[in-house]
Design a protein that fits this description.
heterodimer; A: 2 domains; 14 helices; globular; B: alpha+beta; Alpha-Beta Plaits
């Protein structure tokens, strides 16, 4: 009953928290995404070599190697074992980073395709497009498996021939032809017209792999203020993976359950944190695996509080 | 109970149907990718991989398309392939010799930062690189063949005097000039493409091609006699065993004297026993076998006899 109509989406947060409060994480993410691209381009343009290469493989300050685990996995599947210690070190560094902060932080904070799919979701809301093809969110995990099978059968990084994430990112950095633009447009239209959150939350096998990497992570979205939730549903509207929110909002009510968005598919985009005028959500640093944020007894009397909030 | 079982049945059925749909869709996608990958396996000939690149098949499983080699090339000749089936595999590095050949830096900066060894780090000497092979592909337009002095490809070659040499041939058209013909030697050519860029023609007569296109491959069973001889220090063929010419019956060639004899019918028996089936009359170091006499009017060159035909020999 308190569900916010789509036209008023985000207005409450804007009113309650001001512009920066209502878009804090979104702004930070866009800055991060831009800075990463910028650092890759700063070398060839300004001679400032912070990052050399691209997200598939790079050198940080020309000394620290970083190699994308997704391409490395394909390499192994393709039967290529002639790599270097550098390769393994590079993969380990990237793996450790994302395992710690949450694998899909890659999707929300680094991947350039995220900007495209966010734009598609925004346009979808503005145009009032509600129809969406039913694609199982498990598709990406199947596709991840299929990518490795194809690599094994063809003996090459076959998926990298068409991987939209690699293509868009590479063309941003190396500035090639129109292919990047076409692929970007394709992803945009797919998300806009065919399936809601279609690419990132259903199809992308890279996201699937980063989900697995971040299955146990220390940075997670929690709902310390869940008692304030007034069921406006705005977080569900903006979350790219809305199915992962209820545990933090509903099951968290039950005593002993940690009010944590615990699903490995959480992208740590922080849209739920921003959009909530009641500041129900927050980013929290958790000890590995054990996500115990709810103080015992906190759930007591919460139903009444909720009722009160809704009534007011 | 029954309805509960039914709904469970229904939901299971729906679950299986959805699963089948997902798996089916994913399989189709995978099939498409696989077919695309197979069709894109060979690099188009005008695209050349950077120095040290593994064999194409291995390269495609080792190169992660990061473009670090592109950044490290001081001459900015390397590009990453764009999407499309006419291009090399998406995102992989290449250069095009006619517009931007490899300058063959001595320290090969594009190689050591490759994070996966797709560009083989064991390549330390750029003259050992095998990016391709230059081929003087058109003798009808190459002005050296037309009788003009050019030698530009010979002069720009960084492995000068080894990868391309000049061979002098008589100009049969004029009858009194020489042709200075550039000849590429695959042993030394790195495929850098400097010759291709330098070729003065509108469209180059010398091109760097992938080794697979530029070179034939000798069957494994072939042995080069002179190489085997050099390796062993002596001929593998017994120098004493005489060569058997395909002579008409009753005519023999004497290995020592280099002469052709007619074997007399009457003494054939003797001849056979001394020949041991294969050897010629007399055997090595000996005089012609008894009973064999030199044919009158035969040349010292046995091939003359062969060329004249059997009639005359008889």
């Amino acid at each position: 009953m308190a569900v916010t109509p789509i036209e008023r989406l985000g207005k409450d947060a804007l009113q309650a928290k001001g512009f920066f409060g209502a878009y804090k994480w979104l702004i930070l993410r866009r800055i991060t995404q831009a800075v990463i691209i910028g650092l890759f381009i700063a070398g060839p343009i300004g001679g400032m070599w912070v990052l050399k290469g691209n997200l598939a493989g790079s050198w940080l300050f020309e000394t620290v190697p970083m190699v994308e685990p997704f391409v490395f996995l394909q390499m192994l599947a393709a039967g290529m074992f002639g790599f270097l210690t550098t390769t393994v070190v590079g993969v380990a560094i990237v793996l450790a980073f994302y395992a710690l902060i949450g694998g899909r932080a890659y999707c929300a904070w680094v991947c350039p395709v995220n900007v495209i799919t966010d734009a598609a979701a925004w346009t979808r809301r503005k145009l009032g497009i509600t129809q969406s093809a039913k694609i199982s969110p498990q598709t990406r995990f199947w596709l991840l498996g299929a990518v490795l099978v194809v690599a094994a059968l063809t003996g090459q990084l076959a998926y990298e021939l068409v991987n939209p994430v690699s293509i868009v990112h590479r063309e941003l950095i190396y500035g090639m032809g129109v292919a990047g633009g076409l692929v970007a447009a394709g992803i945009f239209l797919f998300d806009l017209l065919i399936a809601r959150h279609g690419w990132c939350s259903h199809v992308c096998p890279m996201g699937a792999m980063y989900s697995l990497i971040g299955a146990v992570a220390t940075v997670k979205v929690t709902s310390p203020n869940r008692v304030q939730c007034d069921d406006c549903m705005e977080c569900f509207e903006v979350c790219p993976e809305p199915k992962i929110l209820p545990p933090a909002l509903k099951q968290g009510m039950r005593q002993g359950h940690p009010p944590v968005v615990d699903a490995m598919t959480c992208t740590r985009c922080g849209r739920c944190v921003d959009i909530c005028s009641k500041d129900v959500f927050a980013f929290s640093l958790l000890t590995l695996g054990k996500a115990k944020r709810a103080e015992p007894g906190e759930s007591v009397g919460k139903e009444e509080e909720r009722g009160f909030k809704k009534a007011s | 109970m029954a309805s509960g079982g039914n709904s469970r049945n229904m939901s299971r059925r729906r679950f299986l149907a959805n699963l089948a749909r997902t798996v089916g869709g994913v399989s189709l996608l995978a099939l498409g990718i696989g077919i695309h990958a197979r069709s894109a396996k060979a690099v188009p000939p005008e695209y050349i991989r950077p120095p040290g690149a593994l064999d194409e098949e291995e390269f495609l499983s080792a190169c992660i398309r990061c473009g670090i080699c592109v950044r490290d090339c001081p001459y900015d000749i390397l590009k990453l392939a764009d999407l499309g089936s006419d291009n090399p595999a998406t995102g992989t590095p290449y250069f095009i010799a006619r517009t931007g050949p490899c300058e063959m830096c001595e320290d090969i900066p594009c190689v050591p930062n490759c994070p996966t060894n797709a560009l083989d780090h064991s390549l330390k000497d750029i003259t050992k690189a095998k990016m391709g092979l230059a081929v003087l592909i058109d003798q009808e337009t190459c002005i050296a063949f037309l009788g003009l002095r050019c030698e530009v490809c010979y002069n720009v070659c960084p492995v000068r005097g080894k990868a391309i040499t000049l061979e002098f041939q008589p100009n049969k058209r004029s009858g009194r000039h020489a042709l200075f013909i550039p000849v590429v030697h695959s042993e030394h050519c790195t495929g850098c493409g400097l010759c291709e860029r330098a070729c003065i023609l509108e469209r180059e007569a010398i091109k760097v091609l992938p080794i697979r296109l530029a070179k034939g491959q000798l069957g494994q069973h072939y042995r080069l006699g002179w190489e085997e001889k050099a390796r062993r220090g002596e001929s593998l063929v017994n120098p004493d065993s005489p060569h058997e010419f395909n002579l008409p019956e009753g005519v023999k060639y004497d290995y020592e004297t280099g002469r052709v004899y007619r074997v007399d019918e009457a003494t054939d028996k003797v001849g056979k026993s001394t020949r041991g089936g294969r050897a010629l009359p007399g055997g090595p170091g000996g005089s012609p076998a008894p009973g064999a006499e030199q044919m009158p009017g035969t040349s010292a060159n046995p091939l003359d006899v062969l060329n004249r035909g059997l009639q005359e020999a008889k």
